[in-house]
């Protein structure tokens, strides 16, 4: 698919450039004496993409934008409205900030331009106002987007950006600092195999590709399924990890995981601050909850794992948060 949906040369060069930049950054390392944590509720941005009907099946699919009155009138649904802010300090001087929030970070797309969209705009303005290096992580928002509050216009993109930026600033202002030393840092990592979706059958996927006369979205989906199946059968694993910084945990999980996983994490570490970043490995694409695979909908139809993934993920999350 190189040259059709992506430029592999550009991607590899970008990865190499980032690696070089990280290596060079070590020359400017600063001591960290304190860790800060703050959070703020984001208003009118995230909404669940999956509206379930009385029969327990998908009733409404709500993507990143909509002008449909029924879609916009439906409840927000299950989300995590809290934006979390972790900051690193050299005594009284903030050195770097990490922010976490769960939603699809897009308002409109498909117009041919390249954009960091409303989340990136918010981060840029936040960094500019604070004059501190800022990195944003997307949480477990596989089934969360701005569809209830977004009509797909350029005007609303900026409104969404302002709402997220406001939460970033408030979370930083709400920061509580604690002294931190190297012995307060604990890194845990687990490599796991995710259970494959039952519809990933090599012979069928290859036959489908062979019979396609021209490139379509179905071509990309089929090729991606085959690629992931091949990698897993070769022994490909995905990583789940956590970095503990005192009473703050930075959790990294794979795929476009549903927000329910992020919410479940809170119950595992009551009294601590847990910040979840998804997309650690995108190969499995969407990672739904077990029940979601019985409900239908877009996400579980574009998932390369089986319903048993919930047990695997929760078990491993518990292990890396111990």
Folded structure, characterized:
The protein has 322 residues and is an alpha+beta fold. The chain has two domains: 243 residues, no CATH class; 40 residues, no CATH class. It has nine helices and 15 strands. A five-stranded mixed β-sheet has the order 7-6-5-1-9. Strand 11 and strand 12 form a beta hairpin. Helix 5 packs antiparallel against helix 6. The chain starts with 7 loop residues before the first helix and ends with a helix.
Taken in chain order, the helices and strands follow as HEEEEHEEHEEHEEHHEEEHEEHH
- Major beta sheet, strand line-up: 7-6-5-1-9
Radius of gyration of CA atoms, rounded to a whole number:
20 Å
Task: Please bin the fraction of helical residues.
Answer: 25-40%
**Integer count of domains:** 2
Coarse structural class: alpha+beta
Strand content: 15-25%
Number of strands: 15
Specify the overall morphology.
Answer: globular
Number of helices: 9
Termini separation comes to 41 Å
Which terms summarize this structure?
322 residues; 2 domains; globular; 34% helix; alpha+beta
Brief rundown of the structure:
This protein is of the alpha+beta class.
Write the layout of secondary structure elements.
Layout: H1 8-25, E1 34-41, E2 47-48, E3 50-52, E4 58-61, H2 69-73, E5 82-90, E6 93-101, H3 117-130, E7 133-138, E8 144-145, H4 154-173, E9 176-179, E10 185-192, H5 202-211, H6 217-233, E11 238-245, E12 248-252, E13 256-257, H7 259-268, E14 273-277, E15 286-287, H8 298-301, H9 309-320
Parallel strand pairs: 6-7, 12-14, 13-15
Antiparallel strand pairs: 1-5, 1-9, 2-8, 3-4, 5-6, 10-11, 11-12
């Amino acid at each position: 698919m190189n040259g059709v949906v992506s430029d592999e040369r550009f991607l590899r060069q970008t990865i190499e450039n980032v690696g070089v930049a990280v290596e060079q950054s070590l020359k400017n390392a600063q001591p960290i004496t304190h860790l800060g944590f703050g959070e703020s509720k984001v208003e009118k941005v995230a909404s669940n993409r999956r509206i379930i009907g009385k029969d327990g099946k998908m009733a409404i699919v709500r993507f990143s934008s909509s002008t449909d009155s029924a879609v916009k009138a439906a409840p927000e649904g299950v989300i995590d409205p809290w934006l979390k802010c972790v900051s690193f300090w050299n005594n009284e001087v903030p050195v770097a900030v990490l922010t976490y929030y769960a939603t699809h970070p897009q308002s409109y797309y498909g117009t041919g331009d390249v954009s960091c969209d409303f989340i990136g705009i918010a981060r840029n303005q936040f960094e500019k106002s604070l004059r501190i290096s800022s990195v944003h992580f997307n949480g477990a928002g596989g089934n969360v987007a701005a569809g209830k509050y977004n009509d797909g216009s350029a005007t609303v993109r900026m409104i969404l950006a302002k709402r997220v930026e406001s939460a970033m600033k408030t979370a930083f202002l709400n920061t509580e600092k604690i002294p931190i030393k190297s012995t307060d840092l604990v890194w845990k990592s687990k490599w796991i195999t995710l259970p494959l979706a039952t519809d990933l059958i090599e012979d069928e996927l290859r036959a489908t590709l062979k019979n396609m006369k021209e490139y379509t979205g179905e071509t990309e989906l089929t090729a991606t399924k085959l690629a992931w199946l091949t990698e897993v059968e070769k022994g490909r694993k995905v990583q789940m990890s956590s970095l503990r910084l005192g009473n703050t945990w930075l959790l990294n999980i794979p795929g476009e995981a549903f927000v329910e996983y992020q919410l479940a994490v809170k119950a595992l570490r009551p009294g601590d601050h847990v910040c979840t970043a998804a997309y650690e490995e995108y190969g499995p694409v969407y990672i739904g909850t077990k029940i979601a695979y019985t409900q239908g909908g877009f996400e579980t139809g574009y998932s390369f794992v089986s319903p048993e993934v919930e047990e695997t993920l929760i078990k491993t999350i518990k292990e890396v948060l111990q």
